[in-house]
Amino acid sequence: MGEQRLDTGAVTIPATARRAAAEQAWTRWRPELAADTVAALGPAEGDAFLARADLNLYDVHEPLADLYGEAATELFPRALRAALAAAARRPEELRRLDRRREVDPGWFQRSRVQGYVCYVDRFCGTLDRLPGRLDHLAELGTTYLHLMPLLRPRPGENDGGYAVMDYRAVDPRLGTMADLEDVAAALHDRGMALCIDLVLNHTAREHPWARAWLAGDPARAGFYTAFPDRTMPDAYDATIPAVFPDRAPGSFSWVPEACGGAGGWVWTTFWPYQWDLDYTNPEVTLAMLGEITWLANRGVDVFRMDAVPFMWKRLGTSCQNQPEGHSLLQLLHALTRLAAPGVLFKAEAIVSPDDLVAYLGGHDRYRPECELAYHNQLMVLLWSSLATGDVRLARQALRRMRPVPPSATWVTYVRGHDDIGWAITDEDAAAVGLDAFAHRRFLNDFYAGRFPGSFARGALFQENEATGDARISGSAASLCGIEAALEAGDDAALDAGVRRLLLLYSVVHAHGGIPLLYMGDELALRNDAGYLEDPALAPDNRWMHRPPMDWDAAARRDDPATLEGRVFAGIRRLGEVRRSLLALRGGVESAVVDAGSDAVLVWRRKHPRSGTFVGLANFSAAPQAVDADTVTGFGGFEQVHGSDGVLPVRDGQLVVPGLGFAWFAEP
Ligand code: GLC
Ligand code: GLC
Q: Is the CB of residue 644 less than 8 Å from the CB of residue 665?
């Protein structure tokens, strides 16, 4: 049975002592490891591995010591050897990719990097058909493909694939591991990177680790957490917000076979069939490292690290964003990059803006963690601004965020496969005269289509009667008003809906970070009610915004007279212009500027090798005047893109049409 370590708070060891301990361990182990490394990898690769180990020594040793105390002495050589073994098994083509990326460590920050996200079955049926669909992606400029969960899930309900029972097998509905390797190779041939989900907070209860743990197998002892009675579960639940209050309240599920057959409450943050791994046990950490490096060696370039805020628990807290959770990510990251230096981590941390930047390594001192993280805050603010036609909250909240370490960057997105949770802090809301709770409630009403005058056709997800909280489901096009306009046969409303969708995507393409296009948004696909016919999906309305790809609609993508043609051309053009602008590279911050209109988001960015870029997005339906000097005051700007051609300047004012956007850049 897993025992959750009792919480005493993080032990703080002075930095100098921590470093001395790391140096000591390295002095002790380096000679032996050096010999083995050269034997396993040959002199050139071996040297490179050792150089990486030298460089990342603190990133491996310090988190090990923080998390596991004394045991770090024994764990340190084991962890390094695990990384070495994975490096030795890395295929030649992937090593060449690693080499290129070590030469160009900022490869993922280039403005030509653009993402696309899809479900394999809903996009093309099976993995072996994916290489045949890459032209669609190439047309959009895609260089980064995130395939939604595809590892073997449990049978029956599986939370959209987030309940994995075998990390080394592909969902048989989609194909085989060999197919996935072929997909990776086909992507690499076309200069695209492959991203897949790594669900590491929990496994399916059918995973062999879970089965063995339940059966009392000593090799899996302590892999999960169970309590014999409600004392501890109640104590924890008192401060943990429920993720799925409607059908899975609380964070524990009763399992009659647990606790040696006496029955116990197993930690299940999400659905009852998703059992949380217990990372206070270093064997769990090493086992997960084994799965990550194994998958990396199949050709995965980026791991979307699922639900990372939840990985470490502490009594009396929300059990999210704990410092040890960060140490754990840093450790897995450093060890993975020892074995596969071209591989990146992307954090899925859908948390408050104050907690977000830490996942990119932005702590009091920089510590390498994930290279990428979802800019959940920008996403939320885009939808909030669209509902209110007002950007004051966005300006306030974006300005208050901590800067991102230069070696990391955001992934920026309009919509994903999950619900939208309104991560708006009380502090930001109050600063612009809003009550955060009331504003969240307004946004729910607005996007559920219940607010008078709302153009949106979404639905509430996980309405929690106890707290009054809820989140929103719905496809981007439907939330932007396209569905309602089509139903009403209202051309003006349709035009406004298209402008809204392109407006949001314009910000996402130019704010800084890798823009992600969510499958179907390029064709303005609306909500899909098909999920209601499948009993395993029906209770989860997130499926409404996971429609199958509509290839008939895609066939209209080059016809400017169609809805699909307009949206496709608009999104493709955003990518084209983006690629030409050095200022849109990652690694630098965007600064939000007030140019005299509370309806227009204005941001400015500059890369050391480029001139300044300024983006404008008018969230209101009416034209807005902004101060031209503030926007382009610093030299010879040229308008490089816009929704409505070149903007006129009148009396020192630039006039941005309703729901319009414009990009300016110094040559
Ligand atoms: C992630 C996924 C979400 C899933 C949860 C549990 O947040 O995005 O779809 O429900 O993890 O795995
Ligand atoms: C993930 C996200 C959360 C979302 C949930 C279910 O845990 O962090 O925001 O609501 O999945 O979709």
A: no
Nearest CA-CA partner of 361 in 372, 350, 352, 351:
372
DSSP state of 229: S
Closest CA to 610 of 592, 635, 573, 633: 635
Q: How far is CA 349 from the centre of its chain?
A: 7
Residue 277 CA from chain centroid, whole number? 20
pLDDT band at residue 3 under the 50/70/90 scheme:
very low
pLDDT band at 2 (very low <50, low <70, confident <90, very high): very low
Contact 266, 258 (CB under 8 A): yes
Q: Which ligand is nearest to the CA of 304?
A: 1
Q: Select from 140, 133, 128, 130 the least CA-distant residue to 551.
A: 133
Closest atom of ligand 1 relative to the 271 alpha carbon: 6
Residue 471 CA to ligand 2 center (angstroms) comes to 10
Q: Please check whether residue 142 is in contact with residue 263, taking contact to mean a CB–CB distance below 8 angstroms.
A: no
Cβ pair 197, 161 in contact under 8 A: yes
Q: In the 8-state DSSP scheme, what is residue 190?
A: T
Q: Which residues on neighbouring strands pair with residue 518, listed in sequence order?
A: 117
Q: In what order do the strands lie in the sheet with 264-267?
A: 226-227, 264-267, 252-255
**pLDDT over 90 at 637, yes or no:** no
Contacts of 306 (CB under 8 A, 6+ apart): 162, 197, 198, 199, 200, 201, 348
The DSSP-derived string for 578-603 is HHT-GGGSSSS--EEE--S-TTEEEE
**Residue 516 half-sphere exposure, CB side, CA atoms within 13 Å?**
28
Helices then strands, each counted (H, E), the chain: 22, 25
H or E element in which residue 411 lies: strand 409-413
In whole angstroms, what is the distance from residue 286 CA to residue 579 CA?
40
Q: In which residue are the tokens 């590491």 written?
A: 200
Question: Tell me, what amino acid is at 448?
Answer: A
Question: What torsion, rounded to 10 degrees, do the Cα atoms 586, 592, 596, 597 define?
Answer: 80
Instruction: For 570-598, give one letter per residue: b (16+ CB within 10 A) or e.
Output: bbbebbebbbebbbbbbbbbbebbebbbb
Running DSSP on this structure, what letter comes out for residue 436? H
How many percent of the chain have pLDDT more than 70? 98
**In the prediction, which pLDDT does 465 show?**
85
pLDDT of residue 468: 87
Task: Inform me whether the pLDDT recorded for 1 exceeds 60.
Answer: no
Handedness of CA 387, 390, 391, 393 (dihedral sign): negative
Q: Is 418 in the pocket of ligand 1 (CB under 6 A)?
A: yes
Q: 40 near 84, Cβ under 8 Å?
A: yes
Rg (CA), the chain: 25
Atom of ligand 2 nearest to the CA of 349: 8
Cite the active site residues: 306, 348
The pLDDT confidence band at residue 577, using thresholds 50, 70 and 90, is: very high
Residue 507: what pLDDT?
Answer: 98
Under a CB-based contact definition with an 8 Å cutoff, are residues 64 and 286 in contact? no
Across 491-500, average pLDDT? 98
Mutate to test the pocket of ligand 2, among 350, 352, 461 (most ligand atoms within 8 A of CB): 350
**Residue 438: its H or E element:** helix 436-447
